[in-house]
Structures are given as C-alpha cells and as structure tokens.
Amino acid sequence: MLKFGPSFGIRWYGFSYLLAFFCGFLLLHWLAQRRYCALLPDKVGDFILLASLGVVIGGRLGFVLFYRPGQMLVDPMFAFRVWDGGMSSHGGMIGLTLVTFLYARFQRLSWLSLADNIAVVASVGLFLGRCANFINGELYGRPATVPWAMQFPKEAIDLPEIGARVLAAAHAIRPDAGDLDAVLEQARSDTGLQTVLHQVLTPRHPSQLYEALLEGAFLFTTLWFLRLRTKQPRGMLAGLFLLLYAVVRIIVEYFREPDAPLTGPFTRGQALSFMLIAGGVCFVLYALKSRRHEAAQQA
After folding, report:
1. 100 and 168 in one domain?
2. 194: exposed, middle or buried (C-beta count within 10 Å: 0-12, 13-18, 19+)?
3. Same domain, 46 and 109
4. What pLDDT digit, counting tens, does each position of 190-238 carry?
5. Distance CA 126, CA 186 (A)
C-alpha cells in the first residue's frame, strides 16, 4: 500500500485490521451509549484493545496450527513472523471468544450479552479483511468461465508451472525483464507484460468478493437488524453469527481455491466451519432454553 523503504511499509491487510478495530470501536460505543451493550461507553476502548490482541494472536496461531503445522516444526520462529502473512479467521474467532469470556468474567458482565454485541460488529472486520485479500490478489477462487472471472498475478508465484510460462513469455518480448517478481512489478505499467499475464493466467472466481459480501455485508446487515429491531435472548445473536458464518464459508469454499490439503472431501476451511456450526447450535439451544425458562417464570 505505502512503502517507506525496500522492506518497510503499510500493507493493505494490516490497514484493514486497523480500520476494522476502529469501526468496531465506533459501532460498539454506539451500542453501549444506547444500552444495547452491557459495556459502559468509557470501557469500550479498553475492550477493543484487548479484543484486537485476541484476534491477531488467535488468527496467527490458528493459521500456524490449522494450515502450516509442518512449517512450525522445522521453523519455530515462523509463528512470530506476522509480517510474512498468514492469518486464520477461525483462529481469530477463537481468540476473540476467549478474550470476551475472560473480560466479561473479570468485569462481572454477562459473557453472552457481550458476545452478542461482538458478533454484530465482527462482520465489519471480515468484510474489510476480504477486501484486503482481493486487493492483494490472494486467496483467489477456482478456475471459472463466468463473465466476471478475474486473473490474479499471484497465481504465477503460487503455481511454479504458471510462473515458468509467465517468465518464458515475458523474456520473449523483454529479455531484460528479470526474475518473476520483477516481471510482475513491471507489469503494473508495462502493457506488453500485461498482455503476457492476460494470456497465461487463469480466469478465476473473485471468491474474496463473494466472502466480503456474504461473510461481511450480509451477516452485518442481518445481525444489526436483529440487534436493533428484535428482542433476542442472550446468546442468540452469537449463535446465529457462528451458524451463518459457517454456512456461508462452507458454500463459498466451493468457489475458492483450496489453500491447504483437503480433510477428506472437505477443504480445511469447511472442516473448521463444521466445528463452528456445533458451537453455534449450542449457543442457540441455550438461548432458546433461557427464553422458555423466562416465559415459564412470567406465566
């Protein structure tokens, strides 16, 4: 995004995290001011700071454990090189859930009530993160023939055979183009190299945008409406978030290029999402049980 030297700068993914935490602060503060949230308005900033640590640490550890466990064994410091990229949304959710539980316990707040409000605003972070994935050209979709299919230069880095074809075609018209990284960098302004990429790269689903719209915009709109317009028992919104996210993720994974070995017939993201479904069902069942209990007491 912005470079201040050969190896230092502000990246889109990092910027999306900062913007997500800022938006989360604004939304949660708004809910707290209107007493939708058990948090006091002046405590929102403290919670967001802790929540951001939970998301980042959980997201990184989740990526290492769920997607790169072998690399951790041969290079233990890999887990700490966050700047090399690699975050897991499932891991981030686990980290956020743990922070929410501990914060609520130490502050003597209702954990489920706080979790409901976090679930409402969390989708904004998912939306921004997927937009950053799209801008970076990472986590792209499977090959597609749809009219809106797109080509992603990172495919040449991820797939050696595609990279070799790009280099061969690029050197045929630009003998001094350099290595693959140099070719991709020059292609930003060189129409000849852009033509090479267009001829070699595979048209794919822009699955990052599918996820941004479904995991982000759809979930946020749905949960925000339920938060403001309906009265739900504690834990219901958190459960619905887990269920809806998991279902959407399972569906979108059929359009997304797998970024880890399959778990049986399922991608790694789908397998992890089935665990979220189990958690979501537990939240929803508890909320329904609480609603019936309250109704019985009032009868």
Report:
1. no
2. middle
3. yes
4. 999 999 999 999 999 999 999 999 999 999 999 999 999 999 999 999 9
5. 31
